[in-house]
């Protein structure tokens, strides 16, 4: 019982810390995604492992709905097409699985959301580099100090933790805040 309470309290404490220190960065990310949607752009999301699941989850909330009935909002998880991922991984390299998709799909009015608990995922870094070449805005949901991505993305949101599970819990919470805020507007 004590370990359950400790885990829940650790998660809650980290979220309180994020509320106190990252609310402005989260607001800036929401504003950037809003600008993309208002200008006819889309949101491209990516990550590996649990972060891939978060990318898919958030894209589904925008295309489907979060809480309110509304028209779909253009969001694409770059983690879902097994044929594209295995083709690029085989014919190029795993480091290119997101970069090739960004190069083919992203436009300057889009926002690319890079989710990486370490901030050092090679395939996510390459995709952000491609997004920068195109002129698309970039946001990072990061942790563990932010890694290389912290200095690469336009809006880094670095969860102040080294615990992957706690970082992912905060990332999906921030994602839900993004969805909830934009849900009311679109």
TrEMBL record:
<dbReference type="InterPro" id="IPR046348">
    <property type="entry name" value="SIS_dom_sf"/>
</dbReference>
<feature type="binding site">
    <location>
        <begin position="116"/>
        <end position="118"/>
    </location>
    <ligand>
        <name>substrate</name>
    </ligand>
</feature>
<dbReference type="InterPro" id="IPR001347">
    <property type="entry name" value="SIS_dom"/>
</dbReference>
<feature type="binding site">
    <location>
        <position position="121"/>
    </location>
    <ligand>
        <name>substrate</name>
    </ligand>
</feature>
<keyword id="KW-0479">Metal-binding</keyword>
<keyword id="KW-0119">Carbohydrate metabolism</keyword>
<dbReference type="InterPro" id="IPR035461">
    <property type="entry name" value="GmhA/DiaA"/>
</dbReference>
<dbReference type="GO" id="GO:0016853">
    <property type="term" value="F:isomerase activity"/>
</dbReference>
<feature type="binding site">
    <location>
        <position position="61"/>
    </location>
    <ligand>
        <name>Zn(2+)</name>
    </ligand>
</feature>
<keyword id="KW-0413">Isomerase</keyword>
<dbReference type="InterPro" id="IPR050099">
    <property type="entry name" value="SIS_GmhA/DiaA_subfam"/>
</dbReference>
<keyword id="KW-0963">Cytoplasm</keyword>
<keyword id="KW-0862">Zinc</keyword>
<feature type="domain" description="SIS">
    <location>
        <begin position="33"/>
        <end position="186"/>
    </location>
</feature>
<feature type="binding site">
    <location>
        <position position="176"/>
    </location>
    <ligand>
        <name>Zn(2+)</name>
    </ligand>
</feature>
<feature type="binding site">
    <location>
        <begin position="90"/>
        <end position="91"/>
    </location>
    <ligand>
        <name>substrate</name>
    </ligand>
</feature>
<feature type="binding site">
    <location>
        <position position="57"/>
    </location>
    <ligand>
        <name>Zn(2+)</name>
    </ligand>
</feature>
<feature type="binding site">
    <location>
        <position position="61"/>
    </location>
    <ligand>
        <name>substrate</name>
    </ligand>
</feature>
<dbReference type="InterPro" id="IPR004515">
    <property type="entry name" value="Phosphoheptose_Isoase"/>
</dbReference>
<comment type="function">
    <text>Catalyzes the isomerization of sedoheptulose 7-phosphate in D-glycero-D-manno-heptose 7-phosphate.</text>
</comment>
<protein>
    <recommendedName>
        <fullName>Phosphoheptose isomerase</fullName>
        <ecNumber>5.3.1.28</ecNumber>
    </recommendedName>
</protein>
<feature type="binding site">
    <location>
        <begin position="48"/>
        <end position="50"/>
    </location>
    <ligand>
        <name>substrate</name>
    </ligand>
</feature>
<comment type="similarity">
    <text>Belongs to the SIS family. GmhA subfamily.</text>
</comment>
<feature type="binding site">
    <location>
        <position position="168"/>
    </location>
    <ligand>
        <name>substrate</name>
    </ligand>
</feature>
<feature type="binding site">
    <location>
        <position position="168"/>
    </location>
    <ligand>
        <name>Zn(2+)</name>
    </ligand>
</feature>
<comment type="pathway">
    <text>Carbohydrate biosynthesis; D-glycero-D-manno-heptose 7-phosphate biosynthesis; D-glycero-alpha-D-manno-heptose 7-phosphate and D-glycero-beta-D-manno-heptose 7-phosphate from sedoheptulose 7-phosphate: step 1/1.</text>
</comment>
<dbReference type="Pfam" id="PF13580">
    <property type="entry name" value="SIS_2"/>
</dbReference>
